[in-house]
Amino acid sequence: MRELTYYVASTLDGFIAAPDGSFDAFAPDPQFLQYMAAEFPETLPVHARGPLGIAEVPNKHFDTVVMGRKTYDPAVEAGLTSAYPHLRQYVFSRTLGHVDDASVTVVAGNPVDTVRELKKENGLGIWLCGGGELAGQLAPEIDRLIVKVNPVVIGSGTPLFTHDYQPRSWSLVDATPQAGGVAVLQYER
């Protein structure tokens, strides 16, 4: 059975985006980008893979990515129907409709049902790219949490998880400090 991993950048105060949805507070150090390219190459979008020298590097951890529409929209605004053509992509939206790209599937139904079906398939893991609302809906299905904690506090924005009060315990399995003050924290359920 495949695992669902929520792999995401966060501020020290637990936000994954600014109030307007932007990611300007996350300015990765070039050395940290090299770490990401080596350890999680498939999580870098297509327009970054060439400049980082990983355009042809095979996926290490994931072959599928799931995301909400707010996470998908910035790629569309940049002219990309698929930011991750090297992955099977599922975008959860009740309003998006069809996307003219074979690597992108729009799902209007229940994300939990879809993820449960994806977990039954053979292959690499499933990456939950974002956002906080989708993470809140999928919280019971998340097997691993990898948070790239950035050394910045923004005060408000999109929280790491958006859901009702439901404490869930995690076990820290790795903590790796990176250049620029980022700490990569890995947790298992």
TrEMBL record:
| Alphabetical list of InterPro entries matching this protein | DHFR-like_dom_sf, RibDG_C, Riboflavin_Biosynth_HTPR
- Which biological process annotations from GO are given for this protein? riboflavin biosynthetic process
Bacterial bifunctional deaminase-reductase C-terminal domain residues: 4-174
Gene3D superfamilies documented for this protein: Dihydrofolate Reductase, subunit A (3.40.430.10)
Q: Which Pfam families match?
A: RibD_C
Q: Quote one Gene Ontology molecular function term.
A: 5-amino-6-(5-phosphoribosylamino)uracil reductase activity
Domain of life of the source: Bacteria
- UniProt protein name: Dihydrofolate reductase
Organism of origin: Antrihabitans cavernicola
